[in-house]
Amino acid sequence: MRKLNRPYSLVITLLIALILLMTACGGSDSDEESSSGEQAGSQDSDVTLDSEMGEVTIPADTERIIAPYHEDALLALGVTPTAKWAIGETVQDYLADDLQDVPKIEWNLPLEQVLNHEPDLIILENAIDSYEGSYEDYQKIATTYVMTEETTNNWRKQIETFGEMLGKEAKAEEVLNQFDEKTANAKETLNNAIGEETVALIWAQGDQFYLFENNRHSAKVLYSQLGINQPELVSELGEAKPQWNPISLEKLSELKADHVFLLAQENEQGLETLEDSSVWQNTPAAQNGNVYTMNDPSHWTNKGLIAFEKTIDDVLETLTE
């Protein structure tokens, strides 16, 4: 009996060994797939990047981020900041829904306020003299990244840089591609709707008026990316300077725009001034009923993917009815 059972026992032993080997290999593959999935979805190692102040290493476990006035880029990547930019009670209204539960931090980043928010990462603009503390002060609180001038002024570069910082490169590429597709579709739609007609943007604050230069905030999207024609008066302004310069009502009489987006909060004094002005009422857009009042100027007067998408939506809704 033993001679008959020995081959059978050997076969069973070999089968068990083979099953165990296959199970081990399968478990290894599963572990590798799980590890790869985690790597694709989150930053699992420190990232070292160049900054205005030299190389900075961003810890892998960064969660609490302060990036005053650049919350647009963070939100575009699906990241909610720990605190939001404010000047007193003034905040970026167009981000209000996304940031409604986020506490405010004063625009110049008082050190005590920064400490209270316990950030892991502080992101500053390149003009660091505008902040209350020094670079060294903020570094003592948390890892501090100072954007270069290019990154500070270029919203696309911000999204790419923030994506690299936070292990969200794929998300950055995705949202930028989606924006480009949205812009291309909008450009075609608007070309069919208004053709060669011109559009101007005016911001009314109090009783002062600001005509957007062709590269200021939302105007750059309209003219450079949507291909909308600018009136001659806008061309004459040249490129935007850091300081907003008001334009006189008399000068606005020279605005030969077919369409005007008038940015003003409800009950702004400038709205009444224009309504009562024969000079303004004789401009082509006013005479033809093509002056469109936008009561939320916040995204028009800012730059960022979310701001520009809201502007595009407003333009499409208004000019393609």
Number of domains: 2
Proportion of residues in extended strands: 5-15%
Question: Can you tell me the CATH topology of the largest domain?
Answer: Rossmann fold
Question: Count of helical segments?
Answer: 14
The percent range for helix content is 40-55%
Sheet with the most strands? 4 strands, mixed
Summarize model confidence as the mean pLDDT.
89
Strand order of the largest sheet: 9-8-10-11
Total strand count, please? Answer: 11
Any idea of the CATH class of the largest domain? Alpha Beta
- How would you classify the helix and strand content by structural class? alpha/beta
CATH superfamily of the largest domain: Nitrogenase molybdenum iron protein domain
Write the element-wise H/E pattern from the N-terminal end onward.
Answer: HEEEHEEHEHEHHHEEHHHEHHHEH
Alpha-carbon distance between the two ends: 94 Å
Uncertain segments are: 1-41
C-alpha Rg (nearest Å): 28 Å
Describe what this molecule looks like in 3D.
There is one protein chain. The chain is an alpha/beta fold and 321 residues long. The protein has 2 domains: 121 residues, 3-Layer(aba) Sandwich (Rossmann fold); 128 residues, 3-Layer(aba) Sandwich (Rossmann fold). 47% of the residues lie in helices and 14% in strands. It has 14 helices and 11 strands. α6 packs antiparallel against α7 and α7 runs parallel beside α14. The protein is globular and about 60 Å long. It starts with a helix and ends with a helix.
